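Quick one - first record:
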Amino acid sequence: MRKFFLLAFLVFSIDCLAQISGTLYVAAKGGLSLREKKDANSKVLVQIPYGTKVSINYPDEIVNITSDGIIGAWAKTSFNGKTGYIVNSFLLPWPPPKSTVKTMKQYLLQVSPAAGAPVIVKAGSIESLEAGGSNTKKQLYKNGAEYHEETFYEAGNDIYFLPGFTIEQGFILLRLLPEFKAVFGETDIFPMEDKTIKRGEDDYRIRVEKMETSDWIEKIQIDYVEGAFYTFEMFLLGGQLVINFGAGV
């Protein structure tokens, strides 16, 4: 059992590193500074604009850097004939949202066509959801993403499956989508510990689940009341990021 656990942890660690390597997209609104050295005070060679595709690799000695609460690393890349280092915390595996994209559903269509028509799954008495029925609409996209819309009596959930995303990359993406501004604001930092914060008069309860033997974040859950009771969850499942955002009364 112990050998299996250690092997699983090793695979998990390697997988996380692999997800932030290769070809990625700049998701910092102001762009990313390409610096001469692996140092935040190093000379800026050029600014890489938001949305630019970059190919990155890592030097033999990886240097970590924390930005907006995310523990990232300096990655090597080239842009406009100059080679230097950028912070990998603000890179996504898919192009970041365009300025006209406000919701996750719009974003999924920006990055990939839908793979056929949605599938409707009905359970119980759909004519009277109050009697215990439910209605689930599932949409698959050609890049492997999925969107599930679940409707219950006086409640509903939107569930998104994003293959190849880390939890940190999900955090960066959601800060760029106005639909999630009540969950993660543009200036919020990545949550690493349980805490309760105030947004106006409302309490936001943040719970963070980590692996027992490390600081790897396995799940982030946020609960708050804003007219209705809202629950947000974000966690990794089988190589994809799952985002569940629901509300009820």
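second record:
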Amino acid sequence: MTPMLVSACLLGEPVRHDGGARACGHPVLARWVAEGRVVPFCPEMAAGMTVPRPAAEISAGAEGPEVLAGLAKVLDADGEDLTAWFMAGARLALERALVAGARVAVLKEGSPSCGTRVIGDGTFTSTRRPGTGVAAALLARAGIRVFSEDQLEEADACL
């Protein structure tokens, strides 16, 4: 069975910036876990960030591909540049996916690392906008199909 990379927070691991998780109880994800297909991963934790940690967003108007190209940054609300952490996490996510043989990743929507279709708008006002996170962009660029927790049926069809 084909393995898949899954955001650790979706599996109930308390790895989010605020120490929380966003456990997803979807039956497709539960089946994948039971089948032993899931490779849990959190790019920020893999890069060495702590829990809790400051919330981060990609600079206003940009998204993951621009961060990867060095044209945008990932910042916390105080303006501290966290780009190096997010770049490292993205590289580690890709490495883990390749080592595991994953062709699919299910990632947490809205995250500056894992957002597949939606990210914060860079204002730290909980406003969302279309865009991809840094790890999601790097995985997609490498040919790994990325999906959010809202697209589990589509991800399952890819397997």
